[in-house]
Amino acid sequence: MTDTAVHSNPLSRRIAHVLALQPDSPALEFDEHWYSWGGIGGLTQRIGSIIESDQGPRPVGILLQNRPEHVAALLAVLLAGDTVVVINPSRGDDRTRDDIAALRLPLLIGAPGDLDALVVPAPEATVVSIPGPDALPEVRSTATTQNNEAARPGVAVRMLTSGTTGPPKRVDISYDMLARSVMGTDPAAADAPARPRKGVAVVNAPLVHIGGVFRVLQCVTEARPFVLLPRFELKSWVRAVRAHRPGAVSLVPAALRMVLHSELCREDLAGIRVVTSGTAPLSADDADAFYEKFGIPVLTSYAATEFGGGVAGWTLPDHEQYWTAKRGSVGRATGGARLRVVDEHGAVLGAGEAGVLEVIPGQLGPGADWVRTTDLARIDADGFLWILGRADQAIIRGGFKIMPDDVRGALESHPAVRGAAVVGRPDPRLGETPVAMVELHPDADASPGALTTFLQTRLARYEIPTELVVVQSIPRTPSGKPDLRAVRNHFETAASRHAQVHPSGNATAPAAADAPTHSTGHALSGPTAPADVTGHDTADPTEPGTVGRTEHEATDPSEHRSAGPADHETADPTGPVVADHAFSGHNQAGHTAAGYAETTRHRPVDLDGSDRAGR
Predict the structure, then answer these.
(1) Which pLDDT band holds residue 477 (cuts at 50, 70, 90)?
(2) Which Pfam families match (predicted)?
């Protein structure tokens, strides 16, 4: 891409600098094949030449997958100063088509198969196909009418969230927020790399989530080569770790437990100095068991898409000094963030008092206001944050948030369904999964398996209930609403009946959450919905946080890099997590069950395992 085509913001300039730094050096490994910085840069330039416009910043929709050509498309849009509108091609065909139609974007980019299935030609849109990393991008159709849709000034990425207190929404992530997250608190003054880094990172956070975008951009801006995995799959992840010996990796809780319960040994993970864990709650028991087995500390953190990165997290020094006393906490303020807990009237509470968490994220820069989360929390006198629960009803399945009303609405759109109720049921590996109770119209006939098949084109696969039961009537409150407590009790009682004790005294674990159970009082076989996990790592765990009393701030941003999202190894929400065997989680009784509002997670050490805290 020519210099004149590069947007003037620090992030775009850094991307252009790195792509031209050493063109022959390896940049990205995919499917055990390396692509050079020059190769990625060349494809980026070809895509950029198609999307260049003299009309000012435009919103550009990309149906993102974890593939090299999709990384190039992402970089091309950012180099041009346009806005990447992230479109998840795996949310369910009907929903994705409706989403694309409602966006009315002037430009759409995607893989040929996704474009065939999901994009209906529109006169106002130019459609660009990216067949592969070694193929030229193709203009499928050109807009024939004027499209005046303009990007909001300064917005780099519009990320679709799953919603926590209402319908899904798109969150605008500015160029400034992204730059602070991946380049430091003063991006304009940050030194550009003089040569590519030697260490290799491993990335399998999905690009349709902000953690994947952050992670890829961090590697690019640091000129760090990385392995790009389509999703978390144990065998391919272990191959990458053994081959490249990264100093820091990240595992969301479901993936961490998969590694923990595998046959891997310390030698397999040799070289890893720290594991970060994000998105979903991780029990302190699992963190301790991982350390005992592999000798690697696990650092958790707290962040949000809206925050532009991490706001709290454990650091290595804090872990060594405080873990025993503070286990269950998500760490202290990082990256210039400020934290406080307020009551229902907005009054600031003291140390140890429980209330609603409010945050001023460091990534938002000077002058940012307090942001109220949907999380209940407490902060102790040393500044450590505990997340006590959620203030909404979202189901968090391995880090992916599911709104029960979305699933209920999809079920009730079936002509045979009179009503449905959807709740979350605890799962030892994924945290919780959706389960559904359905009431049919009189004389209607629809089997649980048929209903599950019906949902497959209307919901993302991780939203499909893992158990669906058809009943004569759903229990209801006096007002006529479904009695969700009774519905939840039904499924919890059924789960306890499934865990039967053998004559030997060994307990039989319930069916894996990946496999839906369909019943009218008993379990039936049915289509498989995959386990889904994701992770987003955003804070720097090598830097200690400071202590406040009712407001808690990170250390002076001038003393260290901002909380930048880094390692987040995660599974594709549409593909199964592949495990060697099923396993049950540790008993979490007595430990904080953390819930997160559109959370990402924090940055481990440095990506090569070095420790800027001097360790």
Answers:
(1) low
(2) AMP-binding, AMP-binding_C
CB atoms within 10 A of CB 324: 9
Q: In which domain, by residue range, is 487 found?
A: 400-494+510-519
In a domain, 33, yes or no: yes
Q: At residue 15, what is the residue type?
A: I
Residue 396's identity, in one-letter code, is I
Question: Distance between CA 255 and CA 535 in Å, rounded?
Answer: 9
Sign, CA dihedral 324-329-330-334, equals negative
Number of compact structural domains in the chain: 3
Q: Indicate the average pLDDT of the chain.
A: 79
Which residues does residue 519 pair with via DSSP β-bridges, in sequence order? 469
Classified as helix, coil or strand, 576 is coil
Domain boundary among 141, 160, 179: 160
Whether 312 and 424 share a structural domain:
no
Would you say residue 325 lies in a domain? Answer: yes
Identify whether 90 is part of a domain.
yes
Of 165 and 22, the one with more pLDDT: 22
Residue 466 CB contacts under 8 Å (≥ 6 apart), including other chains: 425, 427, 433, 434, 435, 513, 514, 515, 516, 517, 529
Q: What is the pLDDT of residue 2?
A: 44
pLDDT digits (tens, 9 = 90+) for 38-60: 999 999 999 999 988 767 789 99
| Gap between the Cα atoms of 288 and 236, Å rounded | 25
The whole-angstrom separation of Cα 484 and Cα 473 is 13
CATH number for the domain that contains residue 413:
3.30.300.30
pTM exceeds 0.85, yes or no:
no
- Within a 10 A sphere around the Cβ of 500, how many other Cβ atoms? 9
